[in-house]
User: Fold this.
Amino acid sequence: MTEHEHSNGLATFAALRPRLFSIAYRMLGMRADAEDVVQDAWLRWHAAERSQLQSAQAWLLTVTTRLAIDRLRGRKSERENYIGWWLPEPLVELEENTPETAAELAGEVSLAFLWLLERLAPEERAAFLLRQVFDHDYADIAAILGKTEAACRQLVHRARERVRQERPRFDVPRDSHRALLATFMRAAVGGDRAAMKALLSEEVQLVSDGGGKVASFLRILHGPGRIAGAYASLELKYPGQVVYRMARVNGKPGLLRYVAGRIESAQAFIFEGGRIVAVFAVRNPDKLGSAPQII
Assistant:
C-alpha cells in the first residue's frame, strides 16, 4: 500500500468513525466495547484490498455491524450472570455538544431506549437500528446482515412491535424536561418526600445498576412513595454530603449524584405529562468513567 493510499484510507475511516461508533454503541451499550469494535473494523480496513470496493461506507458498516453482533452474542452469558439489573454505560456530557459528540448521539440513544433494545436478539437489534435510527433501506440491511430483504423486514417488524409496547406514549420537550428535573433535584437535595412524590407518576419505576460492585436495588422499585423514600433516605444517611449536578446523559437532561465528594451514580429520567415515569440509575463504577469523578 502506497503512502497516498494509506492517507486516503485513514481519511475515509476518520470521516465514518462517528457513525461506526454510533452503531456499535447502540448495539452493545458499552463505550469500551464499541471502541474495541471500531478499532477491529479499522484493523480490517487497513489490511483490506480496497481498490475493488464499490463503497467504503457499505464495507465499513457491514464489518462494524457484524463485529458488534458477534460481540453481543459473546456477552450473552456475562449478561445472564450479571448481579442485579444491567443498564448501558451512560455517555455523560457537561459542556455543549461538539460536532463529534453530536454525530455520536445523532438519533435516539437514551438509556431508556437502549434498555428496551436489550430485549431484542442481536440480529433483530441490528436490523431495527439500521432501519429505525440510521434510515437504511432493506436492500442495504439485507446486504449487511447477509439475509433476504423479506427476512430483514420481519426482523424489523418484530423488533418494532416489542419496542413500541414499552416506550412512553408522550415525551416532554427538552426545556420542560430540564425544568422538571431541576425541580426534582431541589426536592431531592432537601430530602422533601412530598415534593418528590408530587413529581412522580403513580406508575413510576426505578431501575438501578450496581453490577455487584456497589450496593444497589436488586429489584425494580415501583411507586412514588418507595422511590421518594429511597432518595430521602440517602440524604438522611449522609446529611449535607449528597450533591446533584445537572448533566446530559445520553443526549438528554439527567443528573449526576455525588456522595462525600465522589461520583455515586448517573441518572436518566423519562417524563410523561409533567411527571417522572421512570428513573435509570447507573451506579456500577465501571460504567461511570465518562462522568467527572469528584466534585
User: Anything to note?
Assistant: The mean pLDDT is 89.
